[in-house]
Automatic annotation (TrEMBL):
PANTHER family: ATP-DEPENDENT ZINC METALLOPROTEASE YME1L1 (PTHR23076:SF97), METALLOPROTEASE M41 FTSH (PTHR23076). It is a multi-pass membrane protein. The chain crosses the membrane at residues 21-41, 124-142. ATP binds at residues 214-221. It comes from Clostridium mobile. In the C-terminal section; belongs to the peptidase M41 family. One of its GO terms (molecular function) is metallopeptidase activity. The active site is at residue 436. InterPro entries: AAA+_ATPase (IPR003593), AAA_lid_3 (IPR041569), ATPase_AAA_core (IPR003959), ATPase_AAA_CS (IPR003960), FtsH (IPR005936), Pept_M41_FtsH_extracell (IPR011546), Peptidase_M41 (IPR000642). It holds the Pfam family Peptidase_M41. The lineage of its organism: Bacteria, Bacillati, Bacillota, Clostridia, Eubacteriales. Its cofactor is Zn(2+). Zn(2+) binds at residues 435, 439, 512. Binds 1 zinc ion per subunit. This is ATP-dependent zinc metalloprotease FtsH.
Amino acid sequence: MLNNKNDKDKNNKFDDNKFKYIIYYAIAVTLVVFLINDYVVNNQVKHIKYTEFNTMVQENQIKEVQIASDKIIIYPKEGTKDEGKVLYTGKIAEDEELIERLKKANVPYDGVVVKQDSPIKSFIVNWVLPFLIFMALGRFMFSKIDKKMGSGVMSFGKNTAKIYAESETGVTFKDMAGQEEAKESLVEIVDFLHNPKKYSEIGAKLPKGALLVGPPGTGKTLLAKAVAGEAKVPFFSISGSGFVEMFVGMGAARVRDLFNQAQEKAPCIIFIDEIDAIGKSRDGNLGGNDEREQTLNQLLAEMDGFDSSKGVVILAATNRPEVLDKALLRPGRFDRRVIVDRPDLNGREEILKVHIKGVKMSEDVDLNAVARSTPGAVGADLANIINEAALRAVKNNRKEVIQEDLNEAVEVIIAGKEKRDRILSPKEKRAVAFHEVGHALVAALLTNTDPVHKITIVPRTMGALGYTMQLPTEEKYLITKEEMFDQICVMLGGRAAEEVVLNSISTGASNDIEKATATARSMVTIYGMTEKFDMMGLESTSNRYLDGRPVKNCSAETEAIIDEETLKIIKEAHKKAIDVLTENRELLDKITERLLEKETIMGDEFMAIIKGEEESAQEEE
Ligand code: ADP
Ligand code: ZN
């Protein structure tokens, strides 16, 4: 994931602090050592009076004497009071009988020259050298402790740990394949970071933050880095879980620190990974988590407080946008959403192409085949597959990667993931394809429906396994009864296709059923579209938002009849969907095959297939 440990620039700030610590530490140790040394030396070397010295000579207490140019150094005999110490006394030049007396007392004597060091040299030896030694030792020790504790003890209370700063990410949009939509929506931010003035001069405000939403491994971190790289601005990143500390208040301090650092370096990007770790919705869990709440509040305060015209943009990543606190999504905060979805067939091939750069590949490898065999795989999986294949080639003493390595790698990576991440089995995939084409075909073949924009069986972020998207040709303010009914037919078309083709039904239609039922019900209760109730209002929509539930304006008996009427509409629509699909069984099969092959079909192509079929049918006649 992020936090590339090899980046040289990361942790700049933390290094500065460490360096300061080491200097303080070295000064302290040098002082202490000097004082101890001084104490010991002072205790062992003692000055005595000349007369005392004379007495000692007389009383035969001296082992040896050394006579220097300006002093006399005396070593007392064992058993005397100053045993073990070194005594000294000044030399008195007038005392010419000293030697005589020493001779008489039988004390060995000697002359020495006490060298007087230059002050500079003694300063270096006594102070600078120890200081440097201790500093080197300190560095060594700190690095050990750092490694052992992560960012533990030494940075305690400093809040600088865990923020990773890169002055140049070196990643560009080229390193990010697929995800064209996501890139497009971030181009503006890149431009803004490039030249914040251009925007602030006009008075245009760019969003302070954007939320990158997508499953793990789809390249959210990579995308954020690419934005920084394209704009050539520094990149600060921290993980949401890194904020939440054991101690209340630490996370908030860390947020403050992050924003301070970033603002110094503006324009720049702040990237917060796993923002759901701090941004979880606060309602619902009473009491809650004080630390997380404080951290979240600090983040909100910082986001509101900073001046976006300076060019600080916050990107945050999550794979669970639905749990985020509403406050985070308010205008002026993360009000932009960039979906970073699982790549489709084309995207996967492009991603593979990015990752084979620098890997020696045999000329006949078929990346398209690899892409086809990895539906649902994300960028990180594909990067892994290429690496696994390269490792396998090395293991087999080959100089380049061949197709077999790739196939094997797909097995290793995908089989391992299938259990965890539920990548669809071929059978399931087929069912999903029929289901989606069912929706699309019913939509295309009924008259009162919106045209199909896109059909896809690439698993989506929000739990759906595939989807069919319809876009109205024009803005609509009124919906007719026929249109509503056909909408219900389209919703039920997915399940109908499963029934027609596979003769079995699955759980995949639960959402469709819910929506269809709600629509049918509102036809009965709100819009007065049944004969039975004529234009009688059975539910009021006015106070709906209070608790979200419609208010019933009828008796319990009537409610039972409403249910009957609703069921009647649904049954009718279900039958219509089945009829349409049975009549057009060939088209259903043909489009499903195409969808299985391509995973995503756009509206034009879809309509072209339908038209083609119609024309060939007419020719036959
Ligand atoms: P996320 O932050 O969404 O969990 P990452 O950005 O950490 O995912 O992606 C992990 C790795 O997967 C990236 O470093 C990159 O090698 C690879 N990857 C993911 N998506 C893509 C992509 N669209 N193009 C190229 N590589 C990708
Ligand atoms: Zn459906």
